[in-house]
Design goal:
Blueprint: E1 2-4, H1 11-21, H2 41-53, E2 57-64, E3 67-75, H3 82-85, E4 88-92, H4 101-115, E5 120-126, H5 130-138, E6 142-147, E7 150-156, H6 159-162
Antiparallel strand pairs: 1-2, 2-3, 3-4, 5-7, 6-7
């Protein structure tokens, strides 16, 4: 499993993952919005380019072989939604859940956080999302608050993650 920069070369594999989630733009970690056209070749290419040049967020796709397993995003401190939504957002396609994919992706994105000089990150998930709570806790996350149905974690970026 690797975290890779979004690429037009993975269009078919990404669409396969997207179809597994079902219609909409709810896959966390992909930076997909209602305005993105991921069905046409040009729209997909435009979306991938937007992800690649975003100076406030680092996007990576979780890939094994030629299969897209999910996506992860690292919002930098300057990102307008980092405080409210957290620095890390991720999603794993339904057929790959429960296999450690999210845990490995979070560990790798913590390395990326260290590379851009971050010393801690926050992550937010639904209080009912037991799998994400376990993933964030395993990554060293400390629950800092509950706001409505959301739980906020603070995760230190240890030097071990950056080595």
């Amino acid at each position: 499993m690797d975290l890779v920069v979004p690429s037009d070369d993975l269009a078919a594999a990404w669409r396969d993952a997207h179809a597994e989630w079902g219609p909409g733009f709810h896959e966390d970690g992909f930076g997909l919005t209602a305005d993105d056209d991921v069905e046409s070749a040009q729209g997909f290419s435009d979306w991938v380019e937007r992800l690649r040049v975003d100076a406030e967020c680092t996007y990576r796709w979780i890939v094994a072989g030629e299969r897209v397993l999910g996506g992860v995003a690292l919002r930098h401190d300057s990102h307008e939604f980092a405080e409210r939504l957290g620095h890390i957002g991720y999603g794993v396609r339904p057929s790959e859940r429960g296999r450690g994919v999210a845990s490995r992706a979070v560990r790798e994105v913590l390395r990326l956080a260290g590379d851009v000089g971050m010393t801690r990150v926050t992550a937010v998930c639904e209080a009912s999302n037991v799998a994400s709570i376990a993933t964030l806790t395993r990554a060293g996350g400390e629950r800092v608050e509950c706001i409505g149905s959301a739980v906020r974690f603070r995760i230190p970026v240890h030097p071990i993650f950056c080595a």
